[in-house]
Design brief:
It is built from three helices and nine strands. By secondary structure, it is of the alpha+beta class. The chain starts with 6 loop residues before the first helix and ends in a 12-residue tail after the last strand.
Length: about 160
């Protein structure tokens, strides 16, 4: 039997002009525990569905030095254009955090990982939610409420007796 690697064909197909109908993926993670002095954060990974990186990323998040867990189900969305970059927005009651994701990288088969420091209103404790919105040009591609639960790691060196 002769093996024929197809990775170059996948990358060619990813960057071809026929990207309509392709459902890109977005995965959202947050730290399992946080020290009281840490600011709350989200890690957001966006990738082409042919990219195996998100599945590997999910496994690595739980086993890293600072373990993360997946907050929401995989969010799928289509692209509107090959030219316009994506805007990734995290919105809370009064604050907005935004980052640009180069669309060309996604079309070339790369995974984009962004770390978002959550607005201070989410860090005040308890379960909250933020609105995650992905935009391209003037279009909103997807918008979803993401539940946020901040668990502060206890200080085991302090006696509470």
């Amino acid at each position: 039997m002769v093996g024929f690697p197809t990775r170059h064909l996948q990358l060619w197909a990813l960057s071809s002009s026929n990207f309509h109908g392709v459902q890109f993926t977005c995965e959202v993670f947050q730290p399992l525990f946080m020290l009281p002095s840490q600011k709350s954060a989200l890690r957001i990974c966006i990738a082409h569905p042919c990219n195996r990186y998100p599945a590997d990323m999910c496994r690595r998040q739980g086993s890293s030095l600072e373990p993360f867990y997946q907050v929401a189900i995989v969010i799928k969305f289509p692209l509107e254009s090959k030219e316009d970059d994506l805007k990734l927005l995290c919105l809370s009651d009064s604050e907005k955090v935004q980052e640009t994701v180069p669309v060309r990288c996604l079309l070339n088969g790369e995974c984009n990982t962004s770390n978002f420091e959550l607005p201070s209103s989410c860090a005040e404790g308890g379960a909250k939610s933020i609105c995650l919105r992905i935009e391209q040009g003037t279009s909103t591609l997807v918008e979803q409420q993401i539940p946020i639960s901040i668990e502060v790691e206890p200080d085991y060196g302090v006696s509470h007796t």
